[in-house]
Amino acid sequence: MSILIGRVTVASPELAEFLLAHHADMSGTAPTESQHALPLDGLLVPGVRLFTAREGDDLVATGALATIDGSHEELKSMRTDPQRRGRGLGAMMLAALLDDASERGIRRVSLETGSADFFRPARALYARAGFVECAPFGRYAVDPHSTFMTVALAPASDGASRARYAIMDG
Fold first, then answer.
1. Left if phi > 0, otherwise alpha if psi is -120 to 50, otherwise beta: which for 169?
2. Looking at residue 34, what is its pLDDT?
3. I need a labelling partner for 113 at 20 to 30 A (CA). Which of 39, 79, 140, 170 fits?
4. Which of 117, 112, 58 has its CA nearest to residue 82?
5. pLDDT by residue (tens digit) across 108-148?
6. pTM of the model
7. Where do the structural domains in the chain lie, given as residue ranges?
8. CATH homologous superfamily of domain 3-168?
C-alpha cells in the first residue's frame, strides 16, 4: 500500500489521539520544563506546517515545521505509529518535510530532541539525513535533557526525492 503525506490545517479526534500518545510516549523522559513537544492547537497556528502520513485510512506518522525566521525552521512533532516503526515511515516523513522546506526557500532546519536513550533512534534518523549537533537555537537554552541538531538545505531540485511518496497539500 502507498503512503500519502498531506498537510493538515484542521484538528480531528484521530490526530488529537495520535499526538496525545506522542506526549505519553515521552512522559518521564525528562522534567516537564525540558519537554518541548507542542500540543495539537500549537501545531495548527500560522507559522507551523503540520503533516500526516497515511497508509490507506490509517494515520501512521506526523511531522511539522515551525518558522524561526524567514530562512530557518524547526522540526516538530515527528512521530511514527509504534506498531509500524522500522518500516522507513519516519525517514519518509522527514524527507517530505525537508523537501517542503527546501521548495519554499528555507535554507536551514533545526530540531530539539531528547538526550535520553529513548530518543537514540530519532537522533540516528536525523544524523542519517545529514543533521549534526549544534548549539541551542531560537528560544532554547542549554539543557542536559536536550540534544540540538541542524541541517543546511540546498535549493529545491527536480523533486527526485518525492518519487518515494506522494504529498498532498490541502
1. beta
2. 54
3. 170
4. 58
5. 999 999 998 988 999 999 999 999 999 999 999 999 999 99
6. 0.86
7. 3-168
8. Gcn5-related N-acetyltransferase (GNAT) (3.40.630.30)
